[in-house]
Amino acid sequence: MALALSAVTTAPPASAKDMKFAHVYETSEPFHKWAVWAADEFEKRTDGRHTMEVFPASSLGKESDLNEALGLGTVDVIYTGNQFAGRFYGPIGIAGAPYMFRDVDHWKAYRDSDLFRELAQGYRDKTGNKVITLTYYGQRHVTSNKAIDTPSDMEGLKIRTPNAPLYMMMPKAVDANPTPIAFAEVYLALQQGTVDAQENPLNTIRAKKFYEVQDYINLTGHISDSLLTIVSGITWESLSEKDQKILTNVLEEAAQGATQDILKSEEELVAWFEDQGTTVNQDVDRAAFREAVRPHLTGDNVEWSKKTFERLQAIK
């Protein structure tokens, strides 16, 4: 930690042209639109003292690269998933676990809670980087060629998941067969039957056209996914207190805007998919799935304590 503090205190002030906001999402997505808005607002509200350029679509590297660059100060602001941040400070990954949240209101309450602020501080103590807020990414659902109503319907199902333990937790809990496959290869794997199913938010299912090669979208809602907005500790310490407040405000406002856009699109997409001829299965027994996953959310195989889990569940 001494080395991290030394890096923070000895780094030169961030020049206006050096400030970079990097992420892995496409320019068509709300996350990018609101990142650009935040960059423009930051320049405007600081009277041109700072500018910020947004680098979308992995143009400065994949997500793991951006997390590393954040610590080096070569990138100033990033969006990143809870699980990626959890690689540096395990407890903050709790927001990426299946059925951790009862609904969107519970997720919002966590975002605004003392618990989230404490976990963000723990991450900062570990890395030196400053967590600002959370942006809603969307509920993840299972697509397949059959209806999935209960956990038993997934027994033996070969389902593509990202190669990370929390994404595999729900499939393993219901005796499915989670199969990591590179994201770019998922469409072909579904089309050829290499895997039977996959899981992603509705926006991603549309963007990647998975509905073309899957008959059902089963609204399991197993992960209420979100993105952390994080500022490099080197950059943060180079800003005046006034500009730190301005940056915080614009990033929080951008997160709120993107969250509302995603929530609106989730509401609209059910009808859109049905118009495409895809069956949207809204009869999933989420309570049964939640019950199957519950024993896996505490214990030696997760990076947070039972107390942290219970505090999150108690948030209203």
Question: What can you see in these coordinates?
Answer:
By secondary structure, this protein is an alpha/beta fold. It folds into two domains: 2-137 and 226-267, D-Maltodextrin-Binding Protein, domain 2; 141-223 and 268-302, 3-Layer(aba) Sandwich (D-Maltodextrin-Binding Protein, domain 2), CATH 3.40.190.170. Helix content is 45%, strand content 18%. The protein has 13 helices and nine strands. Strands 1, 2, 3, 4, 5, 6, 7, 8 and 9 form a nine-stranded mixed sheet that branches. Helix 2 (30-45) packs antiparallel against helix 11 (241-275). Pfam families: DctP (PF03480). This is ABC transporter substrate-binding protein. Belongs to the bacterial solute-binding protein 7 family. It comes from Rhodovibrio salinarum. Keywords: Signal, Transport.
Q: How do the helices and strands line up, and which of them pair or pack?
A:
Blueprint (H helix, E strand, L loop, with lengths): L1 H9 L9 E3 L7 H16 L7 E3 L7 H10 L4 E5 H5 L17 H8 L2 H14 L2 E15 L13 E4 L3 H9 L3 E4 L5 H7 L4 E5 H6 L8 E16 L1 H6 L2 H35 L3 E3 L4 H8 L12 H9 L2
Parallel strand pairs: 1-2, 1-3, 5-6, 5-7, 8-9
Antiparallel strand pairs: 3-8, 4-7, 4-8
Helix pairs in contact: 2-11
- Sheet with the most strands? 9 strands, mixed
H/E element order? HEHEHEHHHEEHEHEHEHHEHH
DSSP summary: helix tally: 13
State the total count of DSSP E strands. 9
- Overall geometry comes to globular
CATH class of the largest domain: Alpha Beta
